[in-house]
Fold this sequence. Notes:
Blueprint: H1 4-89, H2 95-225, H3 234-237, H4 246-283, H5 295-304, H6 308-324, H7 338-369, H8 375-406, H9 420-453, H10 460-497, H11 511-531, H12 541-606, H13 613-617, H14 619-634, E1 639-644, E2 647-652, H15 660-779
Amino acid sequence: MAPPELQGKYQKLAQEYSKLRAQNQVLKKGVVDEQANSAALKEQLKMKDQSLRKLQQEMDSLTFRNLQLAKRVELLQDELAVSEPRGKKNKKSGESSSQLSQEQKSVFDEDLQKKIEENERLHIQFFEADEQHKHVEAELRSRLATLEMEAAQHQAVVDGLTRKYMETIEKLQNDKAKLEVKSQTLEKEAKECRLRTEECQLQLKNLHEDLSGRLEESLSIISEKVPFNDTKYSQYNALNVPLHNRRHQLKMRDIAGQALAFVQDLVTALLNFHTYTEQRIQIFPIDSAIDTISPLNQKFSQYLHENASYVRPLEEGMLHLFESITEDTVTVLETTVKLKTFSEHLTSYICFLRKILPYQLKSLEEECESSLCTSALRARNLELSQDMRKMTAVFEKLQTYVGLLALPSTEPDGLLRTNYSSVLTNVGAALHGFHDVMKDISKHYNQKATIEHELPTATQKLITTNDCILSSVVALTNGAGKIASFFSNNVDYFIASLSYGPKAASGFISPLSAECMLQYKKKAAAYMKALRKPLLESVPYEEALANRRVLLSSTESREGLAQQVQQSLEKISKLEQEKEHWMLEAQLAKIKLEKENQRIADKLKSTSIGQGVGPAQENPTGVNAGGQEEASTKAVLEPIHSTSLIGILTRTSDNEVPDVESREDLIKNHYMARIVELTSQLQLADSKSVHFYAECRALSKRLALAEKSKEALTEEMKVAGQNISRLQDELTTTKRSYEDQLSMMSDHLCSMNETLSKQREEIDTLKMSSKGNSKKNKSR
C-alpha cells in the first residue's frame, strides 16, 4: 500500500476536487440563471420601451388637443369680451338682439370648429411630412454608408489584385530564369545521352552477336541431347515438380493457423449458443422444474442437445487441413484434399441448422402466444425469427462456396480455374453477410433480454441464462467479424497464389496429377538430401592427442556434475516429502489449536461474570498450563510452544533430556525453516515494493494531472466569478435605469394628469360662466 502521508494528501486533493466540481456546477447553474434573468429583463425593457413610446405618442396627442382647447377657450373669451359691451349697449333691444347674438354665436362656433379641424389636419400633414423626410434622410444616409463601404472594399480588392499581379510577375520572371538555367543543363545532358546511346548501340551489337552464337549452340545441344520435351503438353507438364517456394508455404501455414484459431473461437461460441438456448427452453415460458414443457420444446431441446456432434467436427476438419499444410508440400486448391472433409462437416452442420430451424421458429411463436408476452416482446421475437432464417441462409451460401473450392481436389472438371477468384470473392461477401446477421441477432436479442428482465415474473435463472446467451452471441459476432476481416485482408493473396504450380503451364490438371507430383517432389527431396550428405571430417592425430587430456578431464567433471545433480535431486525429493509431512503436521496442529481454543472459550463462557476477569488476563500464559494439567490427569504428553523473535520452537514436556545431536538437528531444522520463511518474506517484500513503486508512480502522475485540472478549474472559477460580477453589475445598472425611467414616466404622467385636471376645471368654469352669462342675457 501507499504511504499514509501520500494517501492523506491524495484524499485531500480528491475532496478539494469534488468540492471544486460541485462549486463549478453551482456556478454554471447560477450563470445560466443569470443569463435567463438578463434575457427576461431585456424583454421587459423592450416592452417598457414600447409602452413608453405609446405613452409619449398619447402625450403628444393630448398636448395637441390641449393646445386646440386652449385656443378655443381664448376665442370664446374674446367673443365673450366682445359680447359683454354689446350687451350693455343693446339692453333695450330685447329679444330680437338676443336671438341675433345666439345666431352669431352658433356661426362663430362652426367657424371655430372648422378652423380647429383644419389646424389638426395641417398638424397631421406636417407630422407625416416630417416623418417621411426623416425616413428618406435615414435611407439616404444608410445608402451613402453602404456605398462608401463598397467603395472601400473595391479599393481593397483592387489593391490586392495589383499586389497579386506584381507577385505573379516577379514569380514568372524567376521561373523564366530557372527555366533558362534548366534548359542549359538539359542541353548538356542531351549531349551526354547521345554519347551514351552510341556506346549502348555498340554494346547491343556485341551482345546480339554473342547471344545469337549461344542460341545456335543451345539449339544444337537440345536437338542432339533432349529426346522428349515434356513441357510441350499440359498433361505431362503437370507431373513436373515446380520450384519450391518456402516463403509461400510458411505464409499459407501461418494463414491456416490463424484460420484455425478463428474457427476454434467460432466453434466455442456456437456450442455455448446452442447449449444456453437449450437451457432457456427448459425455463421459459414454462419452467420444467415446475411444470412440463410443450412437446415441441421437448423435441427442440432434444435436437439442441446433439449440437456438439455437429459443431465439433468443424474444428477437427480445420485442424486436419492445418496439419496437411507443411513446409514440404505444395499448397494449391488441387492439393488441399482435407478441404473436402471440412466441407462435408460444414454440410452436416447446415443439415443440423435446417433441422432445428422450424422448431426454433415454432418455439418463438409459442412464446408470442403466451400470456406473459407483450407487444414489444412479440415484435422482438418476430425479428429474431427473421434473423434465424437469415443465419441459416448465410450458412448455406457459405457452404456452397466452400464446396465449390473443395471440387478441384476431388473433381477436376467441377470448377473452372477462371472462376477461382470470383468464388473466393463470394466467400468473403458471405462471411461479411454472416457478420451482419450476427450483429442484428445480438441487437435484437439484447432488446428482447432487456424487455424480459423488466417482466414481474422474470426469475434469476432466466436472467442468468439470457446473459449467457448474450455473451455467446457477442462472441459469435466478434468471431464472425474477425474471420470476415481476416479473409478480406488475405483474399488478394489467395487469388495471387492460385498461379503457383508447374512451370510454363496454367496449373495442375487433376488431383491425380497433383498427387503424383507430390510423390515426385518427395523423391527429389530425398535424392537431393542424399547428394548433400556431408562427409565426415577427420581430426589430425596431433590435435587428437592434445585434446585427449581435455576430453578425459571433461568426462570426469561431467561425471562429478552428474553425481551432484543426482544428489541434489534426491535432496529435493526428500525435502518435498518432509515439506508434505510438515504441512500435514501443521494442519493437525491447527486442528488441535482450534479445538483447544474452542474448549477454552466454552470454559470461559461457563464461568461466572465476576470470575471472568482473571482467566481473561491469564489466558496467554495459562493455555499451556491447562494442557499440562490435562496431560498429568490423562498421562499423555502434549507439545509446548515457546515464542521468540526467531520463530516458534516446539519441544515435548517429557522428563527425559534430549541428547546433543537431536537438539542440534532440531535447531538446524528450525533455522533452515526460518531462513526459507525469511527468503519467501523477502521475495514477497520485493514484489510488494515493486508494486508499491509502480503504484506511487501512478499516484504521482494522477496527482500531477489532478493539480493541472485544479489549476484549470481555478482559472475557470476566476473567469466565472468575473462573468458573474459583470452580469450582476449589468443587472444592477439595468435595474436602476429601469427604475429611473419608471419614476420619470410616473412623474410625467402625474404632471399630465394635473394639467388635464386643471384644464378640465378651467373648461368647467368657462362653461359655467358662459351658461351664467347666457342666463343673464335671457333674463335681460
